[in-house]
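Possible race condition, two jobs.
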Amino acid sequence: MKIKTISLITLISVLFILAIPSFALSKGIKWHSYDKGTAIAKEQGKMIFLYFYADTEQNPYLRSEYPYCSKLKESTFKDSAVINYLNDNFVSISINILGSSKEKKLQDSFGVHGVPSMRFLRKDNTQIRTLGGYIDAKNLMKSLPIIKTESYMSFQDYYDRGIAYHKEKDFTQAIHDYTRAIEIKPDFYQAYFNRGCVHHEEKLFTHAIDDYTKAIENKPDFYQAYFNRGDVYYKKKDFTQAIQDFNRVIQAKPASYQAIRKRGLTYARQGNYPLAIQDFNRIIQAKPAFYQAIVERGLTYARQENYPLAIQDLNKTINIKPDFYQAYLWLAKVYVDNHQHEKAIATYSVLIQKDAKFIKHYQKSLKEKGFYSGPIDGANTKSLQSAIEACVNAGKVVM
């Protein structure tokens, strides 16, 4: 009777085990393919655990080359704490470097040279941290919460890394790091300023203004922030606000010639030519070789149809900076506007001789205007010169 009872219990146990879904017995890290995993991470807002390894199941002779991949699989990745933490906080993606060509391309794109290699990414695929080689469950569990919160970095670490990304034109990463620096240290005016500079470069002007304003709130004498904000207002054609910011800089730093120049340009855009010329004169008197102020004063004279003074300033600019090719184009245009066609043609000819890239440019431009019918091949032909003469004599500008 006792034996029968044991047998019955055993039978019930076996039936119970068989009734359990197979995934419950083999519960482990939920691995995904790269495409599916990145899509899930984006949808769920989770970070990504990217695991590069060598699957030697089909090639046992390779196991000696990749011993730590097997060791991770058999130990660390079977630890319940590791499994639960990864499944709860990350989307896990496994990439077999011995697998498909796509997986090998991913290895190259992430710069993985040896396996096992763990990459931790944000949901937007920007990288947080790399762990290479074997790591036991205890030490991995120490690292995972730090990686998830990115709490191993100080505000200065984020700021410095943001600068590095900024220099590399990796604006997404730079903004992320400047933002993290601000979150840790909310009065960090330099991080606001630098993030504003990124937005400025990306032409996200509203965000740039907000960041420059926060920088100023945290450091009221931060005049570079006033200057940059003024430049954004200028680009947004909010000339009144731009002038106010440039005034703040000039009042504090009377020798800030770039601020004076930008204010002069803003006055010119407003049509306030006397004040614009006054600012350009102020710069030129202090710095006679400041060619940007000279050329801009010349263009302001041209807008007033004061062609002699415009021509004088543009020629002076060319003398100071002979490789400033745009000045030749402006000078030729002023000659055309002033009906000095021969001088305009001569100016275009000088420019062609200085830089061959203008030959093709003129050929294309004149062809569009109907003055040139030859090939666009960069050859300095007589037909191009004739086309320039015809265009100028018709009172049109070659730009």
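Job #2 (started ~2 s after job #1):
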Amino acid sequence: MLEWLGERGTYRIEQCLLDVARVAMQINLVKESTLIQGEVRREVRNLVA
């Protein structure tokens, strides 16, 4: 969402904020992946690695 807002040119998004948002998103994906099972878990893990 932040990237989209920055690309539209209506908002100025600092790079450090984008970096923090990406890391937070990856952490959330890893945390949520513990709730899924089997093959899907492996696929998610490979996507975020």
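Helices lie at 2-8, 15-33, 38-48.
Logs attached separately.
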